[in-house]
Every structure is written in structure tokens, then in C-alpha cells.
Write a structure and sequence with these properties.
Blueprint: H1 2-52, H2 57-67, E1 73-80, E2 85-88, H3 98-111, E3 122-128, E4 131-142, E5 145-155, H4 157-204, H5 215-233, H6 241-252, E6 257-260, E7 267-270, E8 276-279, H7 284-296, E9 298-303, E10 318-321, E11 328-333, H8 337-356, H9 367-387, E12 394-398, H10 405-412, E13 417-421, H11 429-432, H12 438-445, E14 450-453, H13 456-469, E15 473-475, E16 480-483, E17 486-492, H14 502-505, H15 510-521, E18 528-535, H16 542-555, E19 563-570, H17 577-597, E20 605-608, H18 614-623, E21 626-629, H19 638-646, E22 653-657, E23 670-672, H20 677-689, H21 692-708, H22 711-739
Parallel strand pairs: 6-9, 6-12, 9-11, 12-13, 13-14, 14-17, 18-19, 18-21, 19-20, 21-22, 22-23
Antiparallel strand pairs: 1-2, 1-5, 3-4, 4-5, 7-8, 10-11, 15-16, 16-17
Helix pairs in contact: 1-2, 1-4, 5-22, 6-7, 6-22, 8-9, 9-10, 15-18, 16-17, 16-20
The protein binds adenosine-5'-diphosphate-glucose (ADQ).
Adenosine-5'-diphosphate-glucose binds at residues 282-285, 287-288, 423-424, 495, 533-535, 568-570, 611-612, 617, 634-639, 642.
């Protein structure tokens, strides 16, 4: 830049110098011609009056003085024919005396042909110490007789002064022009650049109206910012609670989040002796989200379902949890029996749950249940809107119980970032089509900013349903749906566990766990133990699991008397007939197998149908030789991940159904089709015979995945995507505002 300016200055100087030379020569010629013709004119017009006053010295003197009054005339003299001075004005230069000039006049007269009639005069320029002069001599005659001649000396030094002035003027003009020619565009460019950067900075901070010319550059910037944000958050390094909190603050400027879920993370129950105890419900959703809440703080809005829940809240139906740590609130919402029947048992669990799982249970859709579902969604959405502390809060809406809530929240808080997560599979569009209120469900979920599923397949199914039943636009590149100008990103976010799992950290050693479990179950010293941990749900494939154990004992007699399978089965949704049937079937099945292969001191199936708190569950995980997860269809299945996390001793084998989301990540498990009983029993046998080093290799590989892909990453990814979307919407909103097109522009 500096070099360019220097070259520019030198070039301009040379140009000015050349131009001024030309201007000087030209102006001098102009001035001299002007002076000469003026002098000739003055002399010609004064000749007669000089001739008239020739013989009257005073008059003559006056005439000459009148001519010399012109400031550019230095002096005038009247000379007789004998070259004597007849009269002259004061200060007439001696150098041009009558005698000195007379000889030249004579010579010129001779050169002109010697006739005083035709001779018109003589002139010349000369240099005097005071400056250059122009001398003119002209004959003076009266009545055809030559009386003498008159000499006039003109000052030419003013021409030089004018030349100097013209040159200075020229340089100033050139400089001004140069400044105008280069400086103004430079200043304009600089001011435009600072205007642009000011405007961009303003836009990025979300202020004021924006200019339409910014649209192209903003879309580029959006992309760049997005890429930068994702690159940063994709940066290697483990996701932790601290990193998640920082991400929340940095990208969403959020101090807290609001979670909406049906199930609460801590349930207060009265014990038989009237005391209050705190329970951790058996729920994958709670397992995953509770560490997120501890990391981020905020409010968890949920149904207060415990017998002592009402007696443990404050005046605002809130209770601080976890006990002794108290890092966030639960805001309990009370439901009547009727509401619970219609919303929870009815539409959510007899309608949506079987609809979304391919587990051969027929969905039941009752209009009354649907009305309750809608009303309860509205009640919870209203509570959420009262619990937020800004007009653009971050709300995490969880699961199939609240498919309508995202849209309801958005109606009241249009600027909220609503992240909805569906913990169960989404069926294909044909299957979804049987739900009488499929459109309302789809529209409700599309009220969210981000809609997450565990797998890409579930995302695809959802997007297909939207395409099939709603009038929307699809952004295939972004995996987004645009409905009435509102954009929802539909992405897979496979859920996981906190890492490290705090229940594992506080657990006794594997040897102690094993000894305790062996004692509790009355197992023999050389026994082998398999474990299953589930809510008792027909999607979990507990019947198929027991049948596979039965077939194992049938086909591998060497395990009879030695291998036991313990099933921790928490009764679930027992008000629903299908679940009551399941309870009975499972119990009968266990009895039959125990009868067939059992002995007084040996039980092949140990069915523990009760709630177990996490320390007990983890004790079982750590004690077992294998864990069998046989879900017929499962969003993710966190039991599989918990078993892997629990095995700090690198022993134990996971046998995992291919119909779980977890099977896509835990590929070193023995993957089975739970319907294929022979294949599954073979896998159980292989697990029981697997060499220790192979167990170690498989577990090491799966654990390294869980370390990285933990639940903080799951939440962090969604928050980062939400932040990016929030920025894009803010910028696009400004553009739309400017163009008066409404948010539909950003589509
Ligand atoms: P769930 O259907 O609840 O979750 P899952 O992911 O396996 O299934 O989680 C169950 C949780 O409950 C685990 O933390 C487990 O330890 C606990 N649990 C199970 N049985 C128990 C028992 N008898 N006693 C005590 N605790 C027990 C839903 C979806 C899943 C998805 C999760 C998370 O159905 O596919 O993985 O949400 O998104």
C-alpha cells in the first residue's frame, strides 16, 4: 500500500512539472502578444495627440504623462528627428534614450524600405536589472511631415510574476485534483468498509434493522460461523459436565434449562412405616437427563407421582434436588386420576407406545384419551412458560408424552429454543398413518427448533411421515422441515450415559459385588450368572429372553445346574391390561423353566419383580458373567451401556438385540436377533465360554466409545445446533423484517 502511494506521488509530481512547463511557455507567449498589441494600440492612438502637442512642451509633457499612467508602462519619451529628447516622463530608463533607440529605429526604417510613410515602427524586448521590458518606437508626423518619434517602455516583469502565480496555482490545483481523484475514493471506500463492518457487527449482535445488500454476505457468514462453531465443538477432547455448562453459557447465554418430562428424577414415597424415602425411577430418560440437569441447573417440570410428593414441595410445588446436593428444582404438576388415565395410560401408553414399537401390540386410540392428552400437554406447556426466566429460554421437551407441547410452548414464547427429543423409535409412515391424530402430533413436534431421535432411521421415518401427511417444505441438505416459516432441524443424537458413571465410582469392588450377589441369590461357588434389567415391558423381549435361556439349557446340558439368569424386573404401567398379561406370562414362563431344569438348590431363572435402586442394579452388573438385552424394538437401551460402564474389571459379555439403537454403537457385543431363539442361545453359550482376553478386548473397545460418546456430548451437540439455529433465525429474521416478507423468507 505504502509503495503504491509513493509511486502515485512521484507520478503526480512529474506530471505537474511537465504540464507546468507547457503552461509557462504558452502563457508567456499569450502575455507578450497581449503586451505588444496593447503597446502598438496605445502608441497608434497616442501618436496624433503627441503630434498635436509637439510644439507645446507643457502639453506634450501632459500627453506623455497621461500615457504613462498605465501601471504597466514604465516610461514614455518624445524624440526629435535629430535624436534629441524633446520630452520624457520621470523615471524613463536611460538605456532607451532617444539617441540609443533612434539608431535602431533608423535601421528598421531602412529595412522597411526607407519610407517614413510606410514605416510603422520598431519594437524589441530587453532585460533591465529591474526585469524584462518591451520597447516600442513609432514615428510621429503631422501633415505628412515626420516630426520625430515616440518611445514607450512597457514593463514585462509582471508577466514573470503572473507565470509564477499561474505555476503555483497549477500545482495547487494538481494537488487538489490528486486529493480528489485518489483521496475521495479512498475515504469513501474506508468509510464504506467501516459502515459495513459496523453494520455486520451490529447484526451479529442482533441489533436494529438490516440492509438488504447484506443478505448474500450474511448467508456466507452464517455458514462460516456454523462451521466454526461445529468445528470447535467437534474438537477432540472428552465432553464433561463442565464443558457442557460452558457450552450452554457460551453459545446460548443460558444460565439454566427447563426440562419437561412426564417422569420426575426423584420420587418421594411413603414407606410402610410412614417414613419418606427418595427413589430413583427405573427410566432411561431419567438416567440420561439427570446428569445433564446437575451440570446445567434449572427446573425439571414433571408429574408428581410419588405418594409423598405433595408433602415435600414448597408453596410453588417445587423441591430442590438431588438430596444433599440441591443443584436444581423439580416443579411438580399434579394430575387427576382421570387425566392420568386418558393422557398417560390411555393415549401415551396404549396408543403411541405400541404404535412406535414394532412389538406386535395393537395400538388403542380413544377420542377421550386424545382429548386428555391434548389438555394435559397444554397444562404442562403453561407451567413451563411460567417457569422460564426470559423470553428466549432453552426448553428440553422429552419423549412421546409431550408431542404437542413444543408447538404450545412456541405459541406463547415464539423466541424460545425448544429442543424436543423422542426417546422411542418413530414408525414408518404407513404405520404412523393409522393414528387418527397423526397430523396434530407431527405439527406439535414441528413446533420445536430441534427434534432429536436416537438413529437416522427414526429421523427418516419421521421426515417421511411429514412428507406424506403435511404441507411443508424440506431442506434436505440441513435435514430440516419448514412449516409456516418455522424451521425444525431433525437430527439423530444417540443418547448415552454420564461418564464416569457416578454409581460405578461409588460401587464396591467387583469381588465384593460378586460375593454379595452370590450370597443374596444363594448361588454355588462355581456358578455362572447372566443378568437382565428392565422395566417389565413387552418391548423388552423378556419372554424371548427366558426362552433363549431355556433353549441354552436344552442344547448345552453342561450349563444345567450351573448357569442362572437373574432378571431385575420393575413392574411398569400395571394398570394396562397388556402389561398385566405380560407380568403373568413372564412369571409362568420362569416357573416352567425352573420346573424343567431347576433343582432344590438351583434355579435357572431368578425373577426379581421389584424396584431396585441404582447401587443394587450396578452391583448385579458387576457381579454377572453376561448381560442379555433382548429388546424387540428399543430406541437406544441404556441397560446395555450401563453394563459396559460397570465392568471396570474388563470382564463379562454383552449379548445385545440388533433391534436396539445401542447395537449400532456397541458393535463388539454379541449381536443377536431375539426372535431367533437358537441363534440367541448359541450367543449365550458363546458368551459363557468366551476367553478372558476376548472379553477384555471387546469391553475395552466398547468402553472407549462410551468415554467419548457420553451424555454430555449428546446434550452439548443439541445445544450447539440449537445455538447455531438461533443465530441463523435471528439474522434471517432481521433480513425478513427488512424485506417485509416475514419469517417465510428464511425457508
Ligand atoms: P427405557 O424404556 O426406560 O427408556 P432403558 O434405556 O433401557 O429403557 O433405560 C432403563 C433405565 O432404567 C436404566 O437406567 C436401568 O438401569 C433402569 N432400570 C431398568 N429396570 C430397572 C429395575 N428393575 N430396577 C431399577 N432400575 C431399572 C427409554 C427408551 C429407550 C432409551 C431411553 C433413553 O425406551 O430406548 O434408551 O428411553 O432415551
Amino acid at each position: 500500500m505504502a509503495r503504491f502511494i509513493l509511486t502515485l506521488i512521484v507520478g503526480l509530481a512529474l506530471l505537474t512539472w511537465a504540464v507546468s512547463g507547457v503552461v509557462q511557455t504558452t502563457t508567456r507567449e499569450w502575455f507578450e502578444r497581449d503586451v505588444t498589441s496593447r503597446a502598438q494600440l496605445v502608441m497608434t492612438s497616442a501618436r496624433q495627440s503627441i503630434a498635436d502637442a509637439w510644439y507645446a512642451p507643457t502639453d506634450l509633457q501632459r500627453q506623455l504623462a497621461a500615457i504613462a499612467r498605465d501601471e504597466r508602462v514604465i516610461g514614455v519619451a518624445a524624440c526629435s528627428a535629430d535624436l534629441t529628447t524633446r520630452s520624457s516622463t520621470p523615471g524613463f530608463p536611460d538605456e532607451f534614450s532617444c539617441s540609443a533607440v533612434g539608431s535602431r529605429v533608423r535601421a528598421a526604417e531602412v529595412a522597411a524600405g526607407g519610407s517614413s510613410q510606410t514605416f510603422r515602427g520598431w519594437s524589441a524586448t530587453a532585460a533591465l536589472p529591474t526585469g524584462r521590458v518591451y520597447v516600442t518606437a513609432m514615428p510621429v508626423s503631422a501633415q505628412g511631415q515626420v516630426l520625430g518619434f515616440a518611445i514607450m517602455v512597457h514593463d514585462l516583469s509582471y508577466i514573470e510574476r503572473r507565470e509564477e502565480a499561474a505555476q503555483t496555482f497549477l500545482i495547487i490545483i494538481s494537488a487538489v485534483l490528486a486529493v480528489l481523484a485518489f483521496g475521495v475514493p479512498l475515504l469513501a471506500a474506508k468509510s464504506a468498509r467501516s459502515d459495513w463492518s459496523r453494520e455486520l457487527r451490529r447484526l451479529l449482535h442482533g441489533g436494529g434493522k438490516q440492509k438488504s445488500e447484506f443478505q448474500p454476505i450474511l448467508s456466507d457468514m452464517r455458514e462460516l460461523l456454523g462451521r466454526m462453531a461445529s468445528e470447535r465443538e467437534d474438537a477432540p477432547g472428552r465432553w464433561t459436565a463442565v464443558r457442557l455448562k460452558q457450552t450452554l453459557n457460551r453459545y446460548l447465554h443460558g444460565e439454566k434449562v427447563v426440562i419437561l418430562a412426564n417422569r420426575e428424577p426423584y420420587v418421594h414415597q411413603y414407606t410402610a412405616d410412614g417414613k419418606i424415602e427418595v427413589q430413583h425411577p427405573a427410566s432411561g430418560l431419567v438416567t440420561a437427563l439427570e446428569p445433564i440437569m446437575r451440570a446445567c441447573s434449572g427446573v425439571w417440570v414433571a408429574h408428581g407421582s410419588g405418594s409423598a410428593d405433595r408433602d415435600t414441595v414448597d408453596g410453588n410445588d417445587r423441591v430442590r434436588v438431588p438430596p444433599e446436593e440441591e443443584s436444581y428444582h423439580i416443579r411438580r404438576v399434579w394430575l387427576s386420576d382421570e387425566e392420568q388415565q386418558g393422557y398417560y395410560y390411555g393415549f401415551a401408553n396404549e396408543g403411541l407406545w405400541p404404535l412406535c414399537h414394532t412389538a406386535h401390540a395393537r395400538p388403542v386410540f380413544r377420542a377421550g384419551d386424545w382429548r386428555q392428552y391434548r389438555a394435559v400437554n397444554q397444562r404442562f406447556a403453561d407451567v413451563v412458560c411460567r417457569e422460564v426466566d426470559s423470553k428466549d429460554p432453552i426448553v428440553l421437551v422429552q419423549d412421546y408424552h409431550f408431542a404437542l407441547a413444543p408447538e404450545m410452548i412456541r405459541e406463547r414464547l415464539p423466541q424460545a429454543t425448544v429442543i424436543a427429543f423422542f426417546h422411542i423409535p418413530w414408525p414408518n409412515s404407513e404405520r404412523m398413518g393409522i393414528c387418527p391424530w397423526r397430523n396434530e402430533l407431527l405439527e406439535g413436534l414441528l413446533g420445536s427448533s430441534i427434534l432429536g431421535f436416537h438413529t437416522q432411521l427414526h429421523c427418516n421415518n419421521f421426515l417421511d411421515s411429514v412428507d406424506r401427511f403435511l404441507e411443508t417444505r424440506r431442506d434436505r441438505e440441513q435435514n430440516a422441515v419448514i412449516m409456516q416459516g418455522h424451521r425444525t432441524l431433525v437430527r439423530p443424537y444417540p443418547i448415552s450415559l454420564e461418564w464416569p458413571v457416578h454409581w460405578v465410582q461409588s460401587a464396591p469392588s467387583v469381588e465384593e459385588c460378586r460375593a454379595q450377589v452370590w450370597r443374596d441369590l444363594g448361588l454355588k461357588p462355581g456358578a455362572l450368572l447372566g443378568i437382565g434389567v428392565d422395566r417389565l415391558d413387552y418391548t423388552k423381549g423378556v419372554e424371548e429372553r427366558f426362552q433363549a435361556v431355556e433353549l441354552l439349557l436344552e442344547r448345552h446340558p453342561e450349563f444345567r445346574g450351573r448357569f442362572s439368569f437373574v432378571q431385575l424386573a420393575e413392574p411398569s404401567r400395571t394398570k394396562i391390561e397388556r402389561y398385566q398379561m405380560l407380568n403373568d406370562t413372564v412369571e409362568r414362563l420362569a416357573e416352567r423353566i425352573n420346573l424343567r431344569f431347576g433343582a432344590p438348590d438351583y434355579k435357572p431363572i431368578i425373577l426379581l419383580r421389584s424396584h431396585h435402586e441404582p447401587p443394587e442394579v450396578f452391583r448385579f452388573y458387576r457381579a454377572a458373567d453376561l448381560c442379555y438385552v433382548s429388546s424387540l424394538h428399543d430406541g437406544m437401551n441404556l441397560v446395555a451401556k450401563e453394563f459396559v460402564a460397570a465392568r471396570t474389571d474388563m470382564r463379562g459379555v454383552l449379548v445385545l438385540s440388533e433391534f436396539t439403537g445401542a447395537a449400532r454403537e456397541l458393535t463388539e457385543a454379541l449381536i443377536v436377533n431375539p426372535y431367533d431363539l437358537e441363534g440367541s442361545s448359541d450367543a449365550l453359550a458363546a458368551a459363557l465360554m468366551m476367553p478372558a482376553d476376548e472379553q477384555q478386548d471387546r469391553l475395552r473397545s466398547m468402553r472407549s466409545l462410551l468415554v467419548q460418546f457420553n451424555v454430555y456430548r449428546w446434550a452439548g451437540k443439541m445445544l450447539v445446533d440449537a445455538a447455531r439455529l438461533r443465530n441463523q433465525e435471528r439474522l434471517a429474521g432481521r433480513l425478513a423484517e427488512r424485506a417485509n416478507l416475514g419469517p417465510a423468507l428464511y425457508s
